[in-house]
Specification:
The chain is α+β, with helices and mostly antiparallel strands. The chain is 41% helix and 20% strand. The strands form 2 sheets. Strands 1-2-5-6 form a 4-stranded antiparallel sheet, covered by helices on one side. Helix 2 (22-34) packs across helix 3 (37-58) and helix 3 packs antiparallel against helix 4 (68-76).
């Protein structure tokens, strides 16, 4: 249940954990998001696969889902582009393509939203990164969480909630 802290308030998470039957409370949460059992199963599969992936690849001295890379990966999904340097990583997520017409031709302009992670020196691990905070993270966070809570897996390049 702990990774749900990215989607629900602390009070809501505590209520689910302290429910007489926590598994039932968790199932009710996902069904309320998905609207039906089949869609809820798919949400659960995607969400917890992302948690598993985060734990495998981003674990440092704490679980991978608790890291900032894990948080971004769980909510936004796998990046479309990854650039690695000696001092960090930059993840790019494709925004919806912009169609423009000029001179009778249609041009598609691809834009990306980037998240920059910097390495943090640590005696315990060489897999410790922090996110370089920007307006981008905050701007889309509420939209991403609301999308999950409506039963829609968030993607930057999916503006019509397909």
């Amino acid at each position: 249940m702990d990774p749900l802290e990215y989607l629900v308030s602390k009070d809501e998470l505590l209520r689910m954990k302290n429910a007489p039957r926590p598994k039932v409370a968790l199932d009710e949460f996902w069904i309320s998001c998905g609207g039906n059992v089949e869609r809820s199963r798919e949400l659960i599969r995607i969400f917890y696969t992302r948690v598993l992936y985060s734990n495998y690849y981003f674990t440092s001295f704490k679980e991978g889902w608790r890291t900032e890379r894990g948080m971004v990966y769980i909510i936004y999904g796998p990046p479309d582009k990854v650039y690695k340097t000696s001092d960090g990583e930059q993840w790019g997520y494709r925004k919806p393509a912009i169609r423009s017409t000029w001179g009778g031709r249609v041009h598609l302009k691809e834009e990306y939203i980037y998240f920059t992670f910097r390495t943090r020196s640590s005696d315990f691990t060489d897999n410790d990164f922090y996110i370089s905070r920007s307006e981008t993270l905050v701007t889309y966070w509420d939209q991403a969480v609301a999308s999950w809570l409506k039963g829609i897996v968030f993607r930057f390049d999916n503006p019509d909630d397909i």
